[in-house]
């Protein structure tokens, strides 16, 4: 019995040693990204393919672009994957990322009631927003310093309109909640096309303005600078970036569709040697 007891204790001790070792060997990174990449379903489609290719787990923190960049500045993420080129270039110039790489694009669209009481429909986003403001038609703004919010504010400025008053409501939330609010209130809202295509609770809403070159929506990815934050998992983070811009990653992005509609269009540029 003593021999048997010693054997069982040895096996148990070995098991306790193996478990932490296996856990220590599991590779993972944190990616701060936008609500549009998360709520459109892209990550749910993309990340299993990445893990299969590399064995690396990815935890996504989905917030507005401004918040995602702030997470990167604090060193609380290994990679930032967002869509506000001006803010991204500032992030690089401040030294928080060694460089920025383009990954994919889609476009913004102006959503509104099918009856279009403001007569905003067409292919000119500035004209459409002017008509919404003139009609004082209900408009839902994300108001969350996201890439979509930054684009919306840029369009209002270029249209010569300072949105304010009871008709303009900032909710401080992501794209999904903004679309839900617009649906409930039969209001206008600017959305990225990917989240709109994946959105189910449309009610009486429809796309009213699309096709304007100003609505182009580029996504970029950056490794958080390990010189700024030594704990950043630079090797695995760069592996994720390399995969995104590789033929396999770009093909996977292109293959993600809802109802036959492609949500994102890969456009990574090969790096010059």
Question: Mind sketching the topology for me?
Answer:
Elements: H1 2-25, E1 27-34, H2 35-39, H3 42-54, E2 56-63, H4 65-74, E3 79-82, H5 85-93, E4 101-113, H6 125-135, E5 139-141, H7 147-158, E6 168-170, H8 175-185, E7 188-192, H9 193-198, E8 205-209, E9 216-223, H10 234-245, H11 247-255, E10 257-258, E11 261-262, E12 265-266
Parallel strand pairs: 1-2, 1-3, 5-6, 5-7
Antiparallel strand pairs: 3-9, 4-7, 4-8, 4-9, 4-12, 10-11
Helix pairs in contact: 10-11
What does this structure look like?
It is a single chain. The chain is an alpha/beta fold. The chain has 2 domains: 128 residues, Periplasmic binding protein-like II (D-Maltodextrin-Binding Protein, domain 2, 3-Layer(aba) Sandwich); 109 residues, Periplasmic binding protein-like II (D-Maltodextrin-Binding Protein, domain 2, 3-Layer(aba) Sandwich). Helices cover 45% and strands 23% of the residues. The chain is built from 11 helices and 12 strands. Strands 1, 2, 3, 4, 5, 6, 7, 8, 9 and 12 form a 10-stranded mixed sheet that branches. Strands 10-11 form a two-stranded antiparallel sheet. Helix 10 crosses helix 11. The longest helix has 24 residues. It holds the Pfam family PBP_like_2. It comes from Microvirga terrae. Keywords: Plasmid, Signal. This is Extracellular solute-binding protein.
